[in-house]
Structures are given as C-alpha cells and as structure tokens.
C-alpha cells in the first residue's frame, strides 16, 4: 500500500512539474502567427508570456527591442510605425528558446464582426462559385478567421463543448493566405470588402473575422461597460430569463446548454461573452477599423438596440484607445414586421455615432430568408464607405440620403444629398413611397422624379402627417443614384 502511495505521489509531482514548466515557456499572443498583417503607420506591438524575470529579445525588420518579463509572466515590446510592405520575419528569443514568425506583411487590418450574415461563407454566396473558380489567390490579402467551437444550432452541446465554452475557448484561429480554400470558408461580406480595398489601395489587407450566428449585440460588449450602465446592468442577472434579451436567443441558448452540469454555464449569447472570449484578444493589436453586420437578434426591442449599439461602438473605441471608423450594414428586406422601424433606427444612428457609415441592403433581401445570398454587393458597399471616408478616394459612398421634406400646396417635395442624378432601377416607375394620414391610414404615394427631387401629389381631401420610404418589411422600393446605390428606409413628419 505504501509503495503504491509513493508511486502516485511521484506521478502527481511529475504532472504538476510538467504543467509548471509549460507555464514558463516562451509564448507570443495568438494573433501573432505566420502570414499575419500588422497595421501600418501605428506602433507595432508584440506581446506574450514567459517565465518571470526572463530577458526577451525581439528582432523585426532590422530592428531590435529588449524587455524583461514581469512578475506576472507578461512581456511586450513596441516597434516604431512602418509603412506598408513585406514579407518580413520576427524572431522572439530568450536564453533558452526562440520563436520565429514568417511571411509577415504590414498594411491595413480590419475586423469583420457580427452574427450569421457576417459569418456567411463566400462559397455559399450567390457569386461564390464563380469567384472561387477564378484566380482567387492574392498575396496581399490575409485572413484570420476565429473559428467557433460549435454552431449555435437547435441541438444540445456535448460535455467537451460546454466545458471549453466555460473556459473561454470558444474561438480559435491563425492567419492564412488568400487561396481558394481559405477564401471559400471566410466571410463573403468580409472577403469582398477586403478585395475591393486591396485593389484600390495596393497595400496588404488583413481581415480578422469574429462572428457568431444568432448572437445579440449585448454579447459583444465588455461586461464592465454593461455593469456601469444603469439601463443595461439588469440584463446581466439571469440573462436567460430577461425579456431584454430576444426570446429566440434565450430559447436557442437553453437548448445548447440543456445538458450542462454547471449552474453558471457560459454561452456566446450571454451578455459580454463574445467580447471576453473573442474581441478582447485584439484590443492591444492596432487595427484600421471595423465592419459590422448584426442586428437581427435585437430587432425585438429597437430603442434598446440603439442604446446597445452606441455603447458597443463607444466601448470598443475606448478599449483600443482611438476612434477608428465603424461601418455597418442596415438590415435587409424580409417579412418581419419590426424591420422597417429597425432599419430607420439604424439610419438615424449615423448622426449619433461619429466616423461611421451604413451600407443599405434592403434591395438585396429575401422575403423568406434571413440569410440573403447577395453578399458581394454588401461587401462592396461597405468598401465604398471606407474608400470615401477613410481612404479619401473620389467614389460615391452611398445612395441618396434624405436631406429635406417640404409641403407646397398639394405637393410634397423631397430632396436628397449624395444623389447625383436621382433615378430608379432599370428606369422603372418610382415605387416605395407611402403617405401616412392624420388618422393613421397608409396610402401608396403617387411619386415621380422631377428636376432631381421627388414630387408626391397629396390625394384630394387627405391630411398627411408623415411620409415614408421603403417602409414595408420586404420592399421593392427602387430609388437610386448614378452609382446604382439605393436610398435608405426612412419615415419623417411633414413640416
């Protein structure tokens, strides 16, 4: 008995020693892998872990930085900003170990985040097979897709998935080159965005995809920001029974964690989870900006989403330490009653969130499918916003933007900015405008384009309080500008 006990103690001691040794190994943070892209014209940060008090030497592009590991086992070095270029190598060394990272580029890095429409893979998009059949390889585009541990489908997760989710191991990935396989499984919206920017700017483009199908906005906000907000803090307590969280999200999460043994089981729909497990990994890594496609899982409470979305953008910018551009997709057309109001709320947020832009997508929607297949147009519309606002290129950034509404006699006159010449798709009759009477009736408007403004005739005997456009859940509204870009959903009162 005594011999067996000694053997057990010896094995345990060796096991513990092995883990202690493993904790002392030199490591770089997960964002630093072969084929990566650093953000140009910003300090180049490199960080990781190692044994405390260890001396670290880092070589990059003919420069050397040295540091000593902190008592907490962390290290960081910072190189001076660089212009675009590459490929380069980085070596990180201690007296005993060495890590070499190869094929590094310096260019612009964009985060591509959101829920299932950002997660939607290129190979499944309407243009995906044609795109992948062509010359897809592009040495100037690199992908970091943070793969998810499991889908959030309508099924229970196994024990391993539940445990790893609790351990914040829901996301994993490494930088990859742009080839047929990697592009095919990457976000279609992100791919077309990056392809368009790379073709215009001729600099390396790094795309970091962090997306979870069905995830609500609150899951992407850090917990501290939620706790400090009096409106949002209630959703942190027993979120799975909070009516602040969309019922569908709570029901799907309940199915996923059905077999959980832990009372505090984590889930990517939980407020704060996706920031903690995913986005937080990148806040020390400089980026050019963010593209965002999400909102479907918050359309049940529009005013709450407005508050959440503003909080998300503000908190992310605070975490990174600068006000990077944030470009988002307005929800598409589908037969869901709340979506016109939601789309209009997204339009109004442009005036509340500086350095932002919105890509209209209702014209690309599907009346029955929350995952429309037309993703190329959306990626390219996001790229137009970035090219105009961030890269200062002379492109048309968006469709006609509502500027003013006035009533003259029996006419309502509507002017737009960013319009160029107003037109309609295929030069068809103008559709999509409605009038709302004082007693709440909705009337299809007789609208025409005349002298580059929209003219609407008020029906005889009707008193009109407001005018709306593209305000059906699924709409065939067709007002566009010279670039073929659509006007946004809107509703405004008549002065």
What would you note in describing this structure?
- With 495 residues, the protein is α+β, with helices and mostly antiparallel strands.
- The protein folds into three domains: 27-78 and 91-100, no CATH class; 109-389, Rossmann fold, CATH 3.40.50; 401-493, Immunoglobulin-like.
- The protein contains twelve helices and 26 strands.
- It has helices at 2-23, 116-119, 128-133, 159-166, 180-184, 188-201, 223-227, 247-256, 273-277, 302-320, 339-349, 376-389; strands spanning 27-28, 37-39, 44-49, 55-60, 63-68, 74-79, 85-93, 98-114, 138-145, 147-148, 171-172, 175-178, 205-211, 289-293, 326-329, 356-359, 401-408, 411-417, 423-424, 433-437, 442-444, 446-450, 453-457, 464-469, 479-480, 490-493.
- The strands form six sheets. Strands 2, 4, 5, 7, 8, 9, 12, 13, 14, 15 and 16 form an eleven-stranded mixed β-sheet that branches.
- Helix 6 packs across helix 12 and helix 10 runs parallel beside helix 11 (339-349).
- The relative contact order is 0.10.
- The model is unreliable at 1-20 (pLDDT under 50).
Class from secondary-structure proportions: alpha+beta
Number of folding domains? 3
Provide mean pLDDT, rounded.
95
Q: Would you give the CATH topology of the largest domain?
A: Rossmann fold
């Amino acid at each position: 008995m005594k011999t067996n006990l000694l053997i057990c103690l010896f094995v345990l001691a060796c096991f513990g020693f092995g883990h202690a040794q493993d904790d002392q190994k030199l490591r770089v943070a997960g964002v630093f892998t072969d084929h990566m892209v650093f953000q140009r014209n910003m300090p180049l940060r490199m960080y990781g872990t190692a044994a405390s008090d260890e001396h670290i030497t880092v070589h990059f592009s003919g420069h050397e930085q040295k540091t000593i590991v902190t008592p907490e086992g962390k290290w960081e070095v910072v190189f001076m900003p660089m212009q675009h270029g590459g490929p380069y190598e980085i070596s990180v060394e201690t007296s005993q170990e060495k890590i070499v990272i190869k094929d590094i580029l310096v260019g612009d890095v964009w985060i591509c985040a959101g829920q299932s429409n950002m997660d939607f893979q290129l190979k499944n998009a309407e243009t995906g097979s044609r795109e992948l059949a062509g010359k897809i390889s592009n040495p100037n585009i690199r992908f970091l897709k943070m793969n998810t541990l499991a889908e959030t489908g309508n099924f229970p997760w196994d024990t391993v998935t539940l445990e790893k989710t609790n351990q914040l191991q829901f996301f994993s990935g490494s930088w990859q080159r742009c080839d047929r396989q990697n592009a095919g499984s990457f976000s279609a919206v992100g791919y077309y965005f990056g392809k368009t920017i790379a073709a215009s700017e001729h600099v390396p483009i790094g795309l970091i995809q962090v997306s979870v199908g069905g995830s609500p906005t609150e899951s992407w906000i850090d917990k501290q920001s939620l706790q400090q907000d009096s409106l949002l803090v209630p959703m942190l307590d027993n979120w799975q029974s909070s009516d602040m969280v969309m019922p569908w999200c709570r029901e799907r999460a309940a199915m996923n964690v059905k077999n959980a043994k832990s009372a505090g089981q984590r889930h990517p729909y939980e407020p704060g989870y996706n920031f903690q497990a995913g986005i937080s990994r990148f806040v020390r890594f400089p980026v050019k900006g963010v593209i965002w496609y999400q909102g479907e899982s918050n359309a049940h409470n529009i005013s709450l989403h407005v508050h959440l979305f503003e909080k998300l953008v503000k908190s992310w910018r605070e975490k990174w330490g600068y006000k990077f551009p944030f470009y988002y997709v307005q929800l598409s057309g589908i037969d869901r009653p709340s979506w016109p109001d939601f789309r209009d709320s997204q339009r109004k947020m442009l005036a509340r969130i500086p350095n932002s832009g919105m890509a209209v997508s209702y014209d690309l929607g599907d009346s029955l499918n929350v995952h429309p297949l037309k993703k190329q147009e959306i990626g390219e519309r996001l790229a137009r916003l970035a090219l105009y606002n961030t890269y200062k290129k002379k492109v048309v950034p968006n469709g006609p933007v509502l500027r003013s509404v006035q009533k003259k006699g029996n006419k309502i006159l509507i002017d737009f900015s960013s319009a160029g010449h107003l037109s309609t798709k295929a030069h068809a009759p103008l559709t999509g405008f409605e009038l709302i009477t004082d007693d709440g009736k909705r009337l299809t408007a007789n609208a025409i384009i005349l002298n580059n403004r929209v003219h609407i005739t008020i029906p005889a005997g009707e008193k009109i309080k407001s005018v709306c456009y593209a305000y059906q859940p699924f709409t065939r509204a067709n007002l566009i500008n010279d670039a073929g870009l659509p006007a946004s959903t809107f509703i405004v009162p008549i002065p």
